[in-house]
């Protein structure tokens, strides 16, 4: 009898533990999409005129990034040599050796954008071949909460870089257009490292490029299909449908802008998580199914 009760107690405790773990994971996923500034990274030194070099990142992009037939940029993961994988790691290690707080804000922005993109590509290469970056990780939050680098004594994740640093410290919704999650549905990976010079020009060009691609905005049969980015991060674009469309129209080319001026239909959201790979490979292992939510 006592054994039976003990067994029941153990089962109940295990159930509670699993429930708590799932709740924590859900909370982590929920928090991931909110911009909460990490105070530690708010400091800067505007008197420091030193530039951070991103030559290794440029060399990597020049070798493996190209435009596909759809007008989107893809990366040739399959062809990356062992030597270039090492150079990419060297680049990331160089960035890890720096304390971005000792640089001006503009230099910091370039630092974090380039680090984020390089970490994503490096992570995919470590797990390649895969169908999607969401195959990496715990199956719930994907790779976004994996500690991928140590900066100024602090371990950082992709979520922390985007939602604890980039979004809250700069509060510029165009930043969404220059960070890439290695997916077809994501804004294209910039062909050059993000620079601390002409920041507005770079952000505007990235916004124009993405918004005028079908993966971002597509209008057909009075249905406006938008990238899920405008759903996941609606708060960054004014929250309401009206404000989101207003933002889109600011960067839309004349034809699309005209169509949006007269739009009064329904809005849907979509996102393609397939890997932004130049060469598609057949994956024999089963995919890890994860919720179609962007915690990144």
Can you describe this structure?
The protein is mostly helical and 296 residues long. The protein is 43% helix and 9% strand. A three-stranded mixed sheet has the order 5-6-7. A hairpin with a 2-residue loop joins strand 5 and strand 6. Helix 3 runs antiparallel to helix 4, helix 4 packs antiparallel against helix 5 and helix 8 packs antiparallel against helix 9. The radius of gyration is 21 Å and the shape is globular. The termini are far apart. About 9% of the residues have low confidence.
What descriptors fit this protein?
single chain; 296 residues; mainly alpha; 3-stranded mixed β-sheet
Short summary:
The chain is mainly α and 296 residues long. It has nine helices and seven strands.
Strand content range: 5-15%
| Shape label | globular
Proportion in helices: 40-55%
Structural category is mainly alpha
Give me the number of helical elements. Answer: 9
Largest sheet: 3 strands, mixed
Let me know the number of strands. 7
- The main sheet orders its strands as 5-6-7
User: pLDDT under 50 segments (min length 5)?
Assistant: 17-32, 284-293
- N-to-C terminal Cα separation, in Å? 50 Å
List the helices and strands and how they pair.
Blueprint: H1 2-32, H2 55-64, E1 65-67, E2 73-75, H3 82-96, H4 105-127, E3 149-151, E4 154-156, H5 158-170, H6 199-211, E5 217-220, E6 223-227, H7 229-232, H8 241-251, H9 254-261, E7 266-270
Parallel strand pairs: 6-7
Antiparallel strand pairs: 1-2, 3-4, 5-6
Helix pairs in contact: 3-4, 4-5, 8-9
